[in-house]
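User: I'm curious whether this sequence folds into something compact or stays loose and floppy. Could you predict its structure so I can see for myself?
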Amino acid sequence: MATKTQLEFMLRNANDRIIQLQQLVPAEKPKDYLYHAYSASAAVLQDDYVPNHISWLDWMEREELTDDQLDAAAWARFGHHQQRALTPDPDRPYRAVVQSMKVTRMTTKRLGRVPWVMTWFAHQTFRDGRSDEELRMSFCTYVDKYRWHSEEYQNMNPSEFEKRHGEPYVCLMGAEDVWRWKFCECQPCKDQGIAVFQH
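Assistant: Here's the prediction. I'll summarize afterward.
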């Protein structure tokens, strides 16, 4: 059995260790850099005609949007895509079929809070003061987290994937191949405060 002196010595050592560990812990929790992601599906036209070159369009916001704000933001960002689908084009005679139709609604949904959002063969996020290297590390961590989705997804639709694995399928659209990555360093992206990895 330990003596009183030995117990006091062990207690002092334990207290010293606790103080050392506390000094290693940041005073404030590091920012998680998660943003509110949203998706707008193709516009539904009269007679349920949907332009086949428009399927989904995702984006992110720093602040959460109300339902009204979400619909307005979707139209502000992507309404021109829908209108262009109805514009006469002599090289695409099939468009004549939809000239008298009008866009009746755009379907939107919330994707939760994410660090990166996928666009067409690219991912983007807000810079928010981070260095290029910090953004690269963030994207690398994101891709590594979901790389197994691409491997497991073969011959399965999204609903089957979610039923089997208990989480929604996250498409990386080629980002799992690191050699595809190209970090956009153009001035317009920097001016808008966004970072983009093309792949």
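Summary: The chain has two domains: 32-113, 115-199. The mean pLDDT is 76.
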